[in-house]
Specification:
The chain is mostly helical. It has one domain.
Amino acid sequence: MEETKEKRNLKVINRDVLKYMALFMMGIGHLITYIEIGHALFLPRAVLRFFVFGQMFAPPIFFFFISEGYIHTKSRKKYAIRLLSMALITQIPLYLCHYFTEGKSLTAMFTSWSVLATLFMGLMVLIVWDSKWMLPVRILVMLAITALTWVMQAEWMIFGPILIFTFYILREKPMIRYFVLSVLLLLHQFICNGFFFDLTFTSFQWFIPEMIAITMITFFYNGKKGSSSKFSKWIFYIFYPAHLLLIFAIKMFLK
């Protein structure tokens, strides 16, 4: 009983705090990365590394809250439409930020999709899983949706929907979920590293902030909403395209 109480006392972080932390780390990390690190050399090297690699704290947080949002939303249909709308809107600032400044054609807007598209696909996987279709049909459709993220060349392709589904299906078994997510994230980094790992910090510098994220979710998240204001609700949708537009404006100014 005492151990349970101690565990409960550790859970001091609510939903909004986690999301704001993720937005902050992602925003600063993207800013430094996309405007080229050479423009940020006035910062100490340790600070640069902290924010560049620390941006990987954000994806597991947002994958987790897709599963949480799916559970708690009053209308899954409206939730899906809202997420799809933001994914489509985000393609414009994504193109401007990544491809316009490099002189690439508009086709890039339709061949490389943002992580918001992956979040939407992950949500669709959950909807299909809880549908009344026969199990083999559900599995085939879920695999097709997951494969589509690769066809779209979306950020976190393949792994995004799998991680979202893992968060959802193992929500009542946090320690098993923690282990499975650790393996999946390690596999993701192994692939991103060109199917290579060695026992150096360099091989794990992207993996560490991801592990910090799932550790905070597992041991410190208390399941509470935090603020119920409209600002808190909509900032999480608006921030991604808005911060890409800001980065684009800064890149144009520096040029």
